[in-house]
Design brief:
Beta-lactamase, elongated
């Protein structure tokens, strides 16, 4: 009976789990380009290897994309083309559609024959709208609308939620929009999922000049890139570590550019949208502020941001309550590996903060726990900015108490059908036990009484017999 009482009391014993994080408060972040003059309404600079955001402003705001549209036109063509040397005949309607738009073009003529490769260079180097339309008609089986449907299917597949196209070249039209974040998402998708296509795209978009061979309608022509951030002849725009990618400009889109830069093992994508054009240095020449801002963002990133260790392996960053152990109430949390992140070059370690992501922490953490078991996820912040996400694991083993485990198991089962069945069985067993015990004791009492009677008969036979 004593064991049964202990067993039932253990069922009422349960612990709660409350995380306790030991870390410093963050301050004085340099993870924003506040110290440089920027002009655009939208910009975004990310690590080109994993998409980590370094700087951003309105990166999820929908805007007319202008010729940044052609990035997706190229992606769809490269995805569907089986022969880059395939001949494309320029439909007669293409020159007619582009005429009068005062937009970039390669001077394509009706019935002119060019390869897919040549048209891609025409579209991406000088940003020719007629080349984009010719490719759309060809790969849309005579319908640009069908090709635009392919473009919208493509961006949906990539994961874009704020991008929709109406044409393949980017001239302003209602319901034709994208965001800076979606453009970078598209580039990263191409890079990671279409490596061969991206390699050709990169080759084309980093070309300063390209010569289109003679065709059936034209002599050879030289094309020059519109990406002036790579033009060493324009000091205000030039950034020697930049290469490609694409520009855009319409009345609704403003001045736009997306480019990439690499230096010292660091690789960045930068996109600027809705930038103005005006004389910012009072030299009587209006500057394209998309190039000015893109260059400034690159320079600021390479000068002020480094990839540094922000958390050492096995460094305790907090603890969380654990149940069912008699040895300890808590388990220490650590990262199993060193964690590095993009942070200011003059990083102050006291500005780092580790915060558990609440939804990743189990509601109940129970022993047994082995050293290295994954417990939860956490974010590492610097001056309020998320700089890394880290997996936290148990720093030590935590043994389980059998008695506490049995009690908790009963607690967990309370209110379930199994629990009430067990209670019923226990009641039946106990009732049976008491009935059996009482029955045995009653019989034993009768036997004792009978033995007393028999003893008296033997000792005094005449008392109960005949006289």
């Amino acid at each position: 009976m004593k064991k049964l009482i202990i067993f039932m009391l253990c069922a009422a014993f349960i612990l709660t789990s409350t995380p306790k994080i030991r870390s410093q408060a963050a301050f004085n972040s340099l993870l924003s380009p506040d110290k440089i003059e920027l002009h655009a309404e939208i910009y975004l600079l990310v690590n080109a290897d994993d998409g980590f955001v370094i700087f951003e402003k309105n990166s999820n705001m929908r805007s007319a994309p202008a010729s940044l549209t052609k990035i997706v036109t190229a992606a769809v063509v490269l995805e569907r083309c089986t022969d880059l040397n395939e001949k494309v005949i320029v439909p007669a309607q293409v020159p007619a559609e582009i005429a009068g738009t005062n937009s970039s073009n390669a001077g394509l003529k009706a019935d002119e024959e060019l390869t897919v490769t040549d048209l891609l260079y025409c579209m991406l180097v000088p940003s020719a709208n007629d080349a984009a339309s010719a490719l759309a008609y060809h790969f849309g089986n005579g319908s640009t609308a069908a090709f635009v449907d392919m473009m919208n299917e493509y961006v949906k597949k990539v994961g874009c939620k704020d991008t929709h196209f109406v044409n393949p070249h980017g001239l302003d039209e209602d319901d034709h929009y994208t965001t800076a974040a979606d453009v970078i998402r598209i580039l990263l998708y191409m890079k990671n999922n279409q490596p061969e296509s991206y390699a050709l795209f990169d080759k084309i978009t980093t070309s300063r000049v390209y010569t289109v061979p003679e065709t059936n309608k034209s002599k050879k022509r030289n094309l020059t890139s519109t990406v002036q951030i790579t033009n060493s002849g324009i000091k205000d725009y030039y950034f020697k570590y930049a290469s490609g990618i694409k520009t855009g400009s319409t009345s609704q889109a403003g001045k736009c550019v997306v480019s990439k830069a690499s230096k010292g093992g660091y690789n960045y994508y930068c996109i600027v949208m809705k930038a103005p054009q005006y004389d910012i240095d009072k030299d009587r020449v209006e500057e394209n502020c998309a190039f000015i801002d893109c260059k400034a963002l690159f320079e600021h990133a390479f000068s002020n941001i480094e990839f540094k260790k922000v958390l050492s392996a096995n460094e305790s960053v907090g603890e969380t309550k654990v149940e069912l152990s008699r040895d300890t109430d808590y388990v220490n949390l650590v990262s199993p590996t060193d964690v590095s992140a993009f942070v200011p070059s003059n990083l102050n370690p006291t500005g780092l903060l580790v915060e558990i992501i609440p939804e990743t922490l189990p509601e109940q953490l129970r022993a047994p726990i082995k050293k290295g078991d994954k417990i939860c996820m956490a974010t590492i912040k610097y001056s309020g900015e998320d700089v890394a996400t880290v997996e936290l694991v148990a720093a030590e083993d935590v043994k389980r108490s059998t008695v506490l485990y049995i009690g908790a198991s009963l607690k967990d089962m309370r209110g379930t059908n199994i629990f009430w069945i067990m209670i019923g069985l226990i009641a039946v067993i106990l009732a049976t036990y008491f009935i059996v015990v009482l029955s045995i004791k009653s019989k034993q009492k009768k036997r004792r009484n009978l033995r007393v009677v028999n003893y008296r008969d033997v000792k005094n036979p005449g008392r109960y017999g005949k006289k």
